[in-house]
Amino acid sequence: MTQIKKLGPGLALCLALAVPCWLLGKAFPLVGGPVFAILAGMIISLFYRTKDRTQAGIAYTSKKVLQYAVILLGFGLNLSEIAKVGATSLPIIVSTISTSLIVSFLLYKLMKMPANISTLIGVGSSICGGSAIAATAPVIGADDEEIAQSISVIFLFNIVAALIFPTLGGMLGLSNEGFGLFAGTAVNDTSSVTATAAAWDGMHPGANTLDQATIVKLTRTLAIIPITLALAIWRTARARRTGGGQQSSFSLKKVFPFFILFFVLASVITTVATSFGVPSSVFQPFKELSKFFIIMAMAAIGLNTDLIKLVRTGGKPIFMGLCCWVAIAAVSLGMQHVLGIW
C-alpha cells in the first residue's frame, strides 16, 4: 500500500499522457507514439515542474517500466523466421552495426561528446532506434535528458529516411529484395521501417517488401543482446580501473542487464510455441503492451527533461546522428553490391 501511495500519482500522470499519445501514434505511424509522448512530456515540463508527489512514480516509469517494455518486446521475435532471412541479411546487418558504432566512437573522441549520448546514438542508429536506446540506457546509467536527446536525434533521421528512401531506391534501381534489405538495415525504428517499406510497395504494386524488411529489422533487434552485455562488462572494467579504493563497491552483477535474459526467454517461448502450432497472434497483446510501456516511459522521460537545454545542446548529437545515418545507408548499399544483390 505504501508503494502504491508513493508511485501511484506519477504512474497515473504518465498513463494519462500515454493513452492519447498511443492513439496519435496509431493515426500517425511515421511519427509514432513514443515521439508524441516524449514531446508532450517535455512541453508539460516547461509549465509544470514535477513535485515530490509525482517524482517517484515518474522515475519508476522511466526506468523499470522501460525495462518491462524491452522484456515484452521479445514476444515479437520468432527466432525461426529470423534464421530463414539471416543468411542473406546477416553480413549486411553486422557491417552496418559495426559502422555505426565505429563512427559514433570516432566522433565522440573528435568532438568530445558526452559518452552516454554518443553510445545511445550509435546503438540507436545501428540496431533498432528507441528499443535499443531503452535497453542500453539502464546498462550505461544514462539519465533522462540523455535518453531524450538520443531519441530526438533518431526520430529526426527516421522521418527523413521514410520520406526519401523509396524514391532513392527507385533511382538506384534496387530490386524488391534489395530495397527490403536496405529498409531493414538502414532505417532505425520499426515503425519507420514499416512506413518506408509500405511506401515502396505502394510505388511498386505486388512488391511485398514489407514482410522482408520487417524480418530483417527484427534480426537487427537481436543485436541488443551482445551489445548490452558487452557494455555492462566494459562499464565494470572501467569502474575497476578508475574506482581506486571504491572498486569493491562496483561489480558486474550491479549493472548486468538481467532484463535482457527475460527478453531472450520471451523470444524462445514465442519460437517454441509457434513451432508447436500456436498462432503468432496469441503473442500480439504482449507486443502491443510493450509498445504502450515504451510510450509511458517516454512520457516520463519527457517530464524529466529540460526542453530549452535540449535545444541549446542539440547541434553535436544531430551531427553525430547524421554521420551514423549516412554511413549506415552507404554501407548497406555497398554490401548489397559486394554480395551481388544489387
TrEMBL record:
Q: Does the keyword field hold Repressor?
A: no
Pfam families, per the entry = Cons_hypoth698
On whether Cytoplasm is a keyword of this UniProt record, the answer is no
> What cellular component terms from Gene Ontology apply here?
plasma membrane
Keyword entries, A-Z: Cell membrane, Membrane, Transmembrane, Transmembrane helix
Question: How does the UniProt record describe the way this protein sits in the membrane?
Answer: Multi-pass membrane protein
Q: Which InterPro entries match?
A: UPF0324_pro
- Ranges that cross the membrane: 28-49, 65-83, 89-108, 120-141, 147-168, 180-200, 212-234, 255-277, 289-307, 319-339
Q: Where in the cell is it found?
A: Cell membrane
The UniProt similarity line reads: Belongs to the UPF0324 family.
Name of the protein in question? YeiH family putative sulfate export transporter
Annotated source species: Candidatus Ventrousia excrementavium
